[in-house]
């Protein structure tokens, strides 16, 4: 069973929408959540002049979460992470980001080899989780690192994943926890099925909403009653449908009804459409729990 963690959040501006400094007990790392509009007031922060890694978060034109993952070494001008953030702020090709999370250490212990490894690992974890569209043009190289240092940095990454998630971005958390065989290991919910009208879709309720799993076959047609947001979602995710209308990736929805409407191509009540292996609907299960 996972142990609890003591996380300290400091509202640097006394505002939940402002800058946040985050530390974790027994971790030498430091994390800063910085709104893009607050870069100028960070110039006096010596920690942000150190070497580290950073994440630029925002949304694209389809309202999909995006992230850019980078590293920043100290340069001749003495500016580290913050200088890189200013460079991105001036770059018109990176107009999508609205806030950054910067990771460094309390003892400024990260060197060029360390940040290259961290950048590479964070990039791979974000790709694997498939929650965010990763905007890096190239796969960062891991560098040449010893096994002793790798073990130390992997522990740093474990803590960093918790911190970044706590600061509002589950960029490293898979939609569904699976083992090496692809089997669902999440204890959050059982599996549900939608099979009407030739549809053969599989879904799981999670703490984020409802996930339609890859391998699900969805309706190839849409009705006039299909909600506008479902049509947009279908257009957004058409690239992960094969020629048999089968999903090749998991998709997260806010509600079971949103997921049911997506797979059915029409307005649908997910609490009735989704059933477990015994044929019991979500609505019936919820009613049983209330008794």
UniProtKB/TrEMBL annotation:
What InterPro entries would the database entry show?
Answer: DUF4357, GIY-YIG_endonuc
Q: Which CDD domains match?
A: GIY-YIG_unchar_2 (cd10447)
Q: Where is the GIY-YIG domain?
A: 49-134
Top-level lineage group: Bacteria
Name listed for the protein in its UniProt record:
GIY-YIG domain-containing protein
Instruction: Provide the organism lineage as a comma list.
Output: Bacteria, Bacillati, Bacillota, Clostridia, Lachnospirales
């Amino acid at each position: 069973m996972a142990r609890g963690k003591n996380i300290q959040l400091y509202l640097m501006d006394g505002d939940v929408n402002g800058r946040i400094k985050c530390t974790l007990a027994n971790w030498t790392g430091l994390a800063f959540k910085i709104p893009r509009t607050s870069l100028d007031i960070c110039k006096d922060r010596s920690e942000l002049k150190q070497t580290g890694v950073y994440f630029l978060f925002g949304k694209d034109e389809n309202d999909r979460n995006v992230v850019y993952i980078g590293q920043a070494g100290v340069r001749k001008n003495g500016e580290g992470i913050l200088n890189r953030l200013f460079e991105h702020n001036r770059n018109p090709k990176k107009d999508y980001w609205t806030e950054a999370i910067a990771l460094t250490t309390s003892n400024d212990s990260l060197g060029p080899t360390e940040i290259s490894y961290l950048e590479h690992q964070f990039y791979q974890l974000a790709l694997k989780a498939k929650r965010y569209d990763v905007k890096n043009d190239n796969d960062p190289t891991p560098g040449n690192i010893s096994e002793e240092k790798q073990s130390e940095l992997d522990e740093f990454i474990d803590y960093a994943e918790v911190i970044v998630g706590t600061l509002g971005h589950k960029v490293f958390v898979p939609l569904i926890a699976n083992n090496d065989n692809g089997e669902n290991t999440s204890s959050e919910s059982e599996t549900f099925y939608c099979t009407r009208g030739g549809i053969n879709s599989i879904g799981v309720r999670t703490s984020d909403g409802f996930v339609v799993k890859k391998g699900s076959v969805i309706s190839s047609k849409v009705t006039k009653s299909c909600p506008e947001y479902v049509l947009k979602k279908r257009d957004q995710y058409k690239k992960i449908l094969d020629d048999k209308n089968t999903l090749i990736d998991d998709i997260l929805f806010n509600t079971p009804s949103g997921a049911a409407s997506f797979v059915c191509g029409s307005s649908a009540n997910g609490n009735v459409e989704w059933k477990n292996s015994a044929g019991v609907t979500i609505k019936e299960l919820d009613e049983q729990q209330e008794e």
